[in-house]
């Protein structure tokens, strides 16, 4: 008979697929029992494995087979851990690992024990969980076991997430999913698909999350031994609840609770009870919610599920807060924060401290509340510093933005400390851009460049697919390659460093006498403007978020429909600027917007005299006050660049494959039309700076490949007169559409995710394309759009658009803009002067639709500098 050791190793450690029906698992054959138990365990179906491990342990013990009895015992502990005291079992296993001779000499058995302890510690504390799995990884590597090397790496990723290291966590979990796919490991595929789905739920991408959960359920259905999918269905439940599908969420919660109780899976029962409680809260059934949370607390305390205990305490605290029992709520908030800290779940600790600070503030303990917010901010600084990718930093700041906003409001309303309020806000505002300016941008890794090449090639394949099956296969490949972007070792790398806010006094000293910096905070119950000049700093209270957003939405609708409502423009002026008398006196306004103010053209507001602000003010936009200060400090030391790279005149009507791809990938529903004036725009820019140093990519030469290989890091100006596509749901997929180049494997779609990897030091990038300033609002980080992508790539000033632009009026505006630039005007003055030229020339016909869409992000108070070193010209 084959030894049980070899069978166990073959089935569990090396992943051989060997399915046994229950009918074959005889009561007196421990080898068969253990094989089937391990099969279930390999698919993470520990509930169905429990009785088999128990029987096998008893039979091996009766035979005197201590080694395999221990193997089965460990399996029984793992499959019944939710019925045990987790801290006690973890301690027991630690002693065994240190002292049991079998676990010292038998690497296969030791790996199994480390895996069991890693799963148990994962329900208690992130740090020991990571240590368990790091030890497991070393044993798997010694055994040459690729499958468990991959799984251990994925589990380390989970622990790193809990510890707040977002980038490393995402890399490892995405890598584990890719590895599981390559190794044909269905259990791990299900586990890591579910994990990524849960992450997307946290980021608010519910439809995407459900896509991952559906993939996991499909794999589970093809592997019936995987059993009921608790983790997947818990993720679906969270998504349904956050999407407002409360009846579906309640029904699924009841199903999960029933399944968990039938299998005595107390961790899963506790998780489902907590989510069911949040559903009850959403349905305004407070009594049921309290019952669910209290039952969850009792189960978590009994089982030692510290993280889940923190969750239940946190949600129950909110109910007492709303009831007005603030001392009871504060007691629960303190307990939730302590339980979260004890569990090592660093990612959630800032939010738990936020809840405590809110309660302290509501009881008048303002300085205590500010200190608690500071603790949360310090944790966030460390977490943001540990993230090396721009996308990771943005996601983290977006999810935690309310902490900064609330702290700012507390300081503004109760502590009367503008310098402290400024420091609070600048910890988050435009953090990614500021990090880049302070730390510099590292070159892209070869992996990232290869990923971009693979996706371009697959996009080209997509246009050649002849069947639905081929389309599905190629899209699955694109999905898999997209995951590898998470794993690339230097994806948008930002050097990690301790965060230091630029002092307010230095920012003030950096402002010119005619400049006023207005940093807005859109919030409830009211909003604010932090007004900064060389002479003073103060905080002005404004209308609440709802009021401001309604005014912005109404005016934007009018402007985009080619209307001209001076009443609406005047109402917004009153709401945003009337209470700031210095705004009328200072001719240069630097706006740091918040929320939907990112989409508002301030120069189209109407002042008290009935005139558009563009007549009296030069207005620019910035991600933060710190970013403006840093760019101003750097500009005098920047070397002169070669002049212009211009792209335009693309024959879109002659590119059938590009049109097909644009539709298939969701960039547009209609055929791409030509932009006749775009060629003239590029030629006008060339004429303004005709030094022989320009490169023009016009017509058939305007490919993405040619653009990316045009010495982008040496350009003073980059002008793109092409089609642009915003994507508010997936801002990294916002794109500029150039020409494809099949021989080079180039798809022609220049997405924001690629732009951030471009190396440029341009003084000015002009995006004369539709909707390039439109994007996804990212909380205190700002707005994710094509303009931001170029700023992250290194551009110091970006002209972009807030809506679809008119080809003819854009040409006029750009000609005047470049004429003023050629006269050595600053970038900001040149754009403003061009708008005034249009108003002067066309009068009442020059409605804001034609000029207000164009905005300037950046400093803008320098002319463009360039030298005359000659480059190639292509027409």
3D architecture notes:
The longest helix is centred in the middle third of the chain and has 26 residues. This protein has 38 helices and 17 strands. The strands form four sheets. Strands 6, 7, 8, 12, 15, 16 and 17 form a seven-stranded mixed sheet that branches. With 875 residues, it is an alpha/beta fold. Strand 13 and strand 14 form a beta hairpin.
Which key terms come to mind for this protein?
single chain; 875 residues; alpha/beta; seven-stranded mixed beta sheet; five-stranded mixed beta sheet; 38 helices; disordered C terminus
Kindly summarize this structure in a few lines.
With 875 residues, the chain is α/β, with parallel strands linked by helices.
Structural class estimated from helices and strands: alpha/beta
Shape: globular
> What is the percent of helical residues?
55-70%
Number of helices: 38
Rg, Cα atoms, Å:
30 Å
Q: How many β-strands, per DSSP?
A: 17
Mean pLDDT: 85
| Unreliable spans | 1-25, 485-498, 868-875
Main β-sheet description:
7 strands, mixed
Percent of residues in beta strands: 5-15%
Q: What is the terminal separation in angstroms?
A: 78 Å
Reconstruct the topology from this structure.
Layout (H helix, E strand, L loop, with lengths): L3 H10 L16 H13 L3 H18 L2 H14 L6 H14 L1 H5 L1 H15 L4 H18 L2 H17 L3 H17 L3 H17 L3 H16 L8 H13 L3 H18 L2 H17 L3 H18 L2 H18 L2 H18 L5 H14 L3 H20 L4 H26 L2 H9 L4 H9 L6 H19 L3 H20 L16 H6 L5 E7 L5 E6 L4 E6 L2 H16 L5 H11 L5 H4 L2 E5 L25 E4 L3 H10 L6 E8 L7 H9 L11 H13 L6 E4 L5 H5 L6 E6 L2 E3 L9 E3 L11 E3 H4 L8 E4 L8 E2 L5 E2 L1 H7 L4 E5 L5 H16 L4 H16 L5 H4 L2 E5 L7 E2 L8
Parallel strand pairs: 1-4, 4-5, 6-7, 6-8, 6-17, 8-12, 12-15
Antiparallel strand pairs: 1-2, 2-3, 9-10, 10-11, 13-14, 15-16
């Amino acid at each position: 008979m084959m030894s049980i050791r070899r069978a166990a190793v073959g089935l569990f450690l090396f992943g051989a697929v060997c399915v046994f029906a229950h009918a074959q698992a005889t009561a007196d054959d421990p080898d068969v029992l253990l094989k089937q138990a391990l099969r279930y365990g390999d698919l993470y179906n520990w509930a169905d494995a429990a009785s088999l491990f128990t029987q096998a342990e008893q039979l091996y013990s009766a035979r005197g087979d201590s080694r395999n009895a221990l193997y089965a015992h460990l399996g029984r502990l793992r499959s019944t851990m939710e019925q045990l005291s987790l801290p006690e079992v973890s301690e027991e296993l630690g002693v065994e690992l240190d002292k049991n001779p079998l676990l010292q000499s038998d690497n296969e058995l030791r790996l199994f024990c480390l895996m069991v302890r890693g799963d148990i510690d994962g329900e208690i504390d992130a740090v020991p969980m990571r240590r368990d799995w790091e030890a497991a990884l070393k044993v798997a590597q010694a055994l040459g076991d690729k499958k468990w090397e991959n799984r251990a790496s994925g589990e380390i990723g989970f622990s790193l997430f809990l510890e707040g290291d977002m980038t490393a966590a995402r890399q490892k979990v995405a890598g584990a999913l890719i590895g599981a796919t390559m190794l044909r490991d269905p259990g791990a595929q299900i586990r890591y698909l579910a994990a990524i789905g849960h992450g997307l739920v946290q980021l608010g991408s519910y439809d995407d999350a459900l896509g991952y959960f559906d993939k996991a359920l499909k794999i589970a259905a093809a592997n019936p031994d995987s059993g009921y999918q608790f983790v997947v269905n818990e993720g679906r439940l969270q998504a349904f609840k956050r999407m407002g599908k409360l009846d579906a969420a309640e029904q699924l919660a009841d199903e999960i609770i029933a399944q968990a109780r039938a299998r005595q899976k107390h961790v899963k029962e506790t998780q489902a009870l907590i989510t069911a409680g949040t559903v009850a809260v959403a349905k305004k059934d407070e009594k049921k919610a309290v019952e669910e949370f209290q039952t969850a607390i009792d189960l978590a305390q009994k089982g030692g599920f510290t993280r889940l205990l923190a969750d239940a305490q946190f949600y129950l605290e909110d109910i007492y807060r709303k009831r007005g029992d603030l001392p009871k709520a504060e007691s629960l908030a303190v307990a939730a924060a302590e339980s979260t800290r004890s569990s090592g779940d660093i990612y959630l600790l800032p939010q738990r401290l936020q809840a405590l600070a809110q309660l302290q503030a509501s009881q008048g303990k303002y300085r205590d509340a500010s200190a608690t917010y500071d603790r949360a901010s310090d944790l966030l600084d460390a977490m943001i510093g540990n993230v090396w990718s721009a996308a990771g930093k943005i996601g983290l700041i977006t999810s935690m933005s309310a902490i900064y906003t609330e702290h700012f409001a507390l300081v503004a309303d109760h502590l009367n400390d503008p310098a402290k309020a400024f420091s609070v806000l600048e910890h988050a505002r435009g953090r990614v851009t500021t990090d880049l300016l302070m730390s510099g941008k590292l070159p892209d890794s070869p992996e990232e460049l290869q990923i971009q090449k693979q996706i371009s090639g697959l996009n080209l394949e997509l246009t050649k697919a002849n069947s639905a099956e081929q389309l599905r296969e190629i899209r699955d490949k694109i999905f898999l390659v997209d995951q590898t972007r998470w794993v690339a070792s230097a994806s948008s790398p930002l050097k990690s460093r301790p965060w230091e806010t630029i002092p307010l006094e230095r920012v003030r000293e950096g402002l010119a006498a005619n400049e006023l910096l207005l940093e807005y905070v859109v919030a409830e119950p009211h909003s604010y403007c932090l007004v900064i000049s060389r002479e003073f700093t103060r905080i002005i209270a404004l209308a609440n978020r709802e009021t401001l957003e309604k005014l912005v939405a109404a005016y934007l609708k009018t402007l985009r429909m080619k209307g001209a409502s001076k009443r609406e423009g005047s109402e917004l002026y009153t709401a945003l600027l009337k209470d700031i008398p210095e705004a009328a006196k200072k001719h240069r306004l630097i706006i740091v917007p918040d929320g939907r103010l990112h989409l508002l053209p301030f120069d189209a507001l109407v002042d008290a005299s009935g005139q558009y602000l563009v007549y009296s003010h030069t207005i620019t936009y910035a991600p933060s006050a710190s970013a403006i200060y840093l760019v101003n400090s750097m500009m005098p030391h920047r070397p002169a660049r070669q002049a212009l790279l211009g792209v335009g005149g693309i024959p879109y009507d002659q590119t059938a494959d590009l049109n097909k791809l644009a539709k298939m990938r969701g960039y547009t529903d209609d055929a791409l039309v030509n932009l006749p004036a775009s060629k003239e725009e590029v030629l006008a820019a060339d004429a303004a700076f005709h030094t022989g140093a320009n490169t023009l990519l016009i017509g058939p030469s305007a490919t993405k490949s040619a653009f990316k290989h045009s010495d982008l890091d040496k350009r003073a100006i980059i002008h793109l007169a092409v089609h642009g596509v915003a994507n508010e749901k997936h801002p990294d997929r916002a794109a500029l559409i150039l020409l494809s180049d099949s021989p080079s494997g180039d798809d022609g779609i220049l997405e924001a995710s690629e732009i951030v990897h471009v190396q440029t030091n341009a003084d000015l990038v002009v995006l004369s394309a539709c909707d390039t300033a439109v994007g996804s609002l990212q909380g205190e980080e700002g707005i994710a759009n094509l303009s931001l992508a170029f700023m992250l790539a290194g551009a110091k000033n970006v002209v972009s658009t807030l809506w679809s632009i008119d080809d003819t009026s854009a040409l006029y505006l750009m000609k005047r803009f470049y004429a003023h630039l050629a006269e050595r005007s600053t970038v900001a003055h040149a754009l403003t002067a061009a708008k005034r030229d249009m108003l002067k020339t066309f009068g009442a016909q020059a409605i804001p639709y034609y000029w207000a869409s164009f905005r300037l992000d950046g400093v803008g108070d320098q002319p463009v500098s360039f030298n005359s070193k000659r480059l190639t010209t292509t027409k």
